[in-house]
Amino acid sequence: MKPTRQQLAAAADRTIPDVLAPGLAVLFSGINPGLYSAATGRHFARPGNRFWPALHRSGFTPRLLRPDEQEELLTYGLGITNVADRATARAEELSTAELVAGAGHLTAKVRRFHPRWLAVVGVTAYRTAFRRPKATFGAQPETIGTTRIWVLPNPSGLNAHYTPDTLAAEFALLRQAAQESAA
């Protein structure tokens, strides 16, 4: 069901539940929920968001999942959370202080649930939240306990720098690293 304009407006500042369990292979972290996601209660729910196709095309999932099937990710050792919990129309509406505080909350989740990899989607948000201004895509030198960190491009349809193919290729690099670290 597509949210109405009123439902989208009412979704501002809402939060949505994490898809999380102990010991995941990869915990994906969005920047924050968009209004569409907050209105539906599903991560990466806006039509045109390329997260779900990138997961499938990169080999993380055997079929293309829909946002309403997000709980199925747990069966593949995957989960989803956000750096900042508050829903906004655009990530740029988040303050630096909110992103930094969100990184602290995310770090606490990682320490509690111990995923092998934390994958943050959005290099600019990662740089700000984790105070790593020179961070690039891929594996990061820092860890959170034993959890490795990987930065992926933002899968939003607004990110014109990445085509569906190049986005899936970036996700596939993480999948390969996650498989190698499990061996």
UniProtKB/TrEMBL annotation:
GO terms assigned for molecular function: pyrimidine-specific mismatch base pair DNA N-glycosylase activity; uracil DNA N-glycosylase activity
Residue stretches making up the Uracil-DNA glycosylase-like domain: 17-178
Species name: Phytohabitans suffuscus
NCBIfam families linked to this entry: PRK10201.1
GO biological processes: base-excision repair, AP site formation
Coiled-coil region(s): none
Protein name, as recorded: Mismatch-specific DNA-glycosylase
Classification via InterPro entries: MUG/TDG, Uracil-DNA_glycosylase-like, Uracil-DNA_glycosylase-like_sf
Record keywords: DNA damage, DNA repair, Hydrolase
